[in-house]
Design a protein that fits this description.
The protein is an alpha/beta fold. The protein is built from 4 helices and 16 strands. Helix 3 runs parallel beside helix 4.
């Protein structure tokens, strides 16, 4: 098991059960599959599986057989995306890549379990898989030639729509990133040998919702990254992460953009809401603001709103900046904000 302190360099004020954290385990491919369709996948039946099989020597009439580097099209609803088809080589029973390649499937908003079967009889493999905007799902997974395994992980696909009248307000720079299109996109990197991809709608997963700023959001451009898009690699197949954080946000702007409203429209009993703010809240000046003013008030609102839905709030003190004292220790740059968050957490625990 992997403790949360292994990968979060911050203090979590409320603890999350450690049994939710596990590295991906090896499983064997289940040859009995549900039916799939080559029609636009947004009309897929609830909980139906779609299985994509790769190879020039494969014969499969039940599933989507891909025997060439098929370019994604809206008409078909799946394929290699973002001009990466030229990086793909279809082998006899798998595909490999010369450079990173993207495979997309058009799906409705929801949570999906992804099963990737991989392995090569000819060479060793070392596979990294990311989903949507660079959410890490599998990190440099090594296999010797002749081995075959299926790795399972979960991906949250979402839209800006809350109801018929209300939507999340996106920043301009967010409108073109992969988190907000109508597809589930997987990125394959390294020594890749992918035999099949199975995608299944899952409605029974525990969801970990993330609310935060640039230190939490799914950063879409190298070399930027956040803990929010790497934490996905540490959960087992019962958990999915829905990351609503965005760069530059404070508690007030996150709420004002309807992101809290969106989360509250979906969060259910037993889900989690991780809340990390402070970097941009520090910049809000004036009477009534500050750590002990609007910051504490809004934190309390976020927490109570989650609790009213039967969800479990987790307060995460703001990630330290990379500023150091002369002796090499971290320089405190957040003032009273971590203390204010801890104070809110103590009051919640005492209720």
């Amino acid at each position: 098991m992997v403790k949360i302190s292994t990968f979060l360099s911050m203090v979590i004020c409320l603890a999350m059960p450690s049994q939710f954290f596990a590295m991906h385990s090896k499983t064997t491919l289940n040859n009995s599959v549900c039916s799939s369709s080559e029609n636009k996948n947004k009309d897929a039946v609830k909980n139906e599986s779609q299985l994509f099989v790769f190879g020039t020597a494969i014969k499969d009439k039940k599933n989507a057989l891909i025997n060439n580097a098929l370019i994604y099209s809206e008409a078909k609803g799946y394929g290699f995306d973002f001009n990466s088809a030229s990086n793909v080589k279809i082998n006899s029973n798998s595909f490999s890549v010369s450079k990173p390649a993207y495979f997309s499937v058009a799906v409705p908003e929801g949570n999906y379990q992804v099963e990737v079967t991989m392995g090569s009889a000819e060479k060793d493999s070392k596979v990294t898989i990311k989903a949507e905007s660079r959410r890490l799902m599998l990190n440099q997974f090594a296999m010797e030639k002749g081995q075959k395994t299926t790795q399972t992980f979960n991906v949250n696909v979402r839209s800006t729509k809350i109801d018929d009248q209300t939507n999340i307000s996106l920043k301009d720079r967010e409108k073109e990133i992969l988190n907000w299109d109508n597809k589930l996109t997987l990125e394959f990197l390294g020594e890749v040998s992918i035999q099949s991809i199975k995608i299944t709608k899952k409605d029974d997963l525990t969801v970990v919702y993330l609310a935060g700023d640039s230190t939490v959001t799914d950063q879409d451009v190298e070399p930027w990254a956040s803990w929010g898009q790497f934490i996905t690699n540490y959960f087992d197949s019962n958990i999915v992460v829905a990351n609503y954080a965005y760069s530059g946000s404070s508690l007030s702007s996150f709420k004002g953009a309807n992101r809290l409203k969106k989360i509250l429209s979906e969060i259910k009993k037993g889900d989690y809401l991780f809340v990390e703010f402070g970097h941009n809240d520090e910049k809000i000046k004036g009477e009534g603001n500050g750590a002990w003013g609007s910051y504490s008030t809004l934190l309390t609102e976020f927490v109570n709103s989650a609790k009213e839905k039967g969800a479990i709030p987790v307060l995460v003190t703001p990630t330290q900046r990379r500023f150091f004292n002369e002796n090499g220790t971290l320089k405190e740059t957040h003032g009273d904000f971590p203390a204010a968050m801890r104070d809110v957490a103590k009051k919640i625990i005492s209720l």
